[in-house]
Amino acid sequence: MERPKLEVADVFRRYGAAYRQQHAGSLSRGQRRVMSAIELCRTAALGGHLEECDCCGHQRPAYHSCRNRHCPKCQSLARAQWLEDRQAELLPVEYFHVVFTVPEEIAALAYQNKEVVYGILFRATAETLRTLAADPQHLGAEIGFFAVLHSWGQNLLHHPHLHCVVPGGGLAPDGKRWIACRPGFFLPVNVLSCLFRRLFLDYLQAAFEQGQRHFFSSLERLRDPHAFAHYLAPLRQIDWVVHAKPPFGGPEQVLNYLGRYTHRVAISNNRLLDIEDGKITFRWKDYRHNDRPRVMTLEADEFIRRFPAPRPARRFPAHPSLRLSRPPLPQGQAGPLPPTPRGGFNRRRKAAGPTRLSRSL
């Protein structure tokens, strides 16, 4: 695969020093470290080694990579390892892609309270999916799923949303039967949206009452309890966006899709079109208008500002995720699970590790 002609590193090399000098008072040490790592990645500054062809003896220098999780050039090996580790966790069933998005007013709170608000986003999403799936009127089963946080949009603006990949079914309450959902349908989106909205706002209000929030600048007025309640009141009346995309073609596609989301930065190098006269032009998809391809041009200062903007907190509470591990029955049927083949699957229930997140500055 041909390497992109333009890279995010080129933007930082040309305009990064001026940006750091202009915003010296607001840039954190972590942001400076990331910018420096991307600038130096695969250059002589990090050292390297000499590669030689066994046949013709041709030699070429290979410079070391920065291995920073925010670097567009340093995600391939991590992604490959993650995909290999996840192979044993897939089920041969239909999978669904459900996206939970918070309103702009909540995104503004999340920008100043990342750890608290993102933690609530994971908690409310997990409880919403598992509560409705356990309801006999919908599925009546205990489910498991992957959840991946994205805190940016294609235009590099702050846009927190959670991608969930869910198998089409789950274990019956007795733990001995697989219950499959209807082909092509998982759970009603409008019911998911209402429950997600209620749970999220309830948890957010509780966090405020416990003092787990920080408000600055234009949001400083929300420190007052009455102002905060007034701010949330309209959000209880509007529809929150929960989007259920068409099911995947198979487990392998699920892994490939997840790999792109768990090891991806705000913008990849191949989306850059031009870097000239202090302006950066790049491609982006407008998901609000049927994924329409668009082109955007930003001043270098604004491009660099947006790149570090979607930087999630380092740790979030891990939520239990049931990893179903035995082969299911054909879709639409429920019955006893067949014996597990030796070495083919994990135990029926297994505690989930820390939630995997897509990382960005």
Descriptive notes:
There is one protein chain. The chain is an alpha+beta fold and 361 residues long. 32% of the residues lie in helices and 19% in strands. It is built from 9 helices and 12 strands. The strands form 4 sheets. Strands 4-5-3-8 form a 4-stranded antiparallel sheet, sandwiched between helices. A hairpin with a 2-residue loop joins β9 and β10. The C terminus is likely disordered.
Write the layout of secondary structure elements.
Elements: H1 8-22, H2 29-40, E1 48-52, E2 59-63, H3 76-86, E3 95-101, H4 104-112, H5 114-134, E4 146-152, E5 158-167, E6 169-171, E7 177-180, H6 189-209, H7 225-232, E8 242-245, H8 251-262, E9 272-276, E10 279-286, E11 292-299, H9 300-306, E12 334-336
Antiparallel strand pairs: 1-2, 3-5, 3-8, 4-5, 6-7, 7-12, 9-10, 10-11
Helix pairs in contact: 1-2, 3-8, 4-5, 5-6
Gist of the model:
By secondary structure, the chain is of the alpha+beta class.
Strand order of the largest sheet: 4-5-3-8
Low-confidence stretches: 310-361
Number of strands: 12
Backbone CA Rg: 23 Å
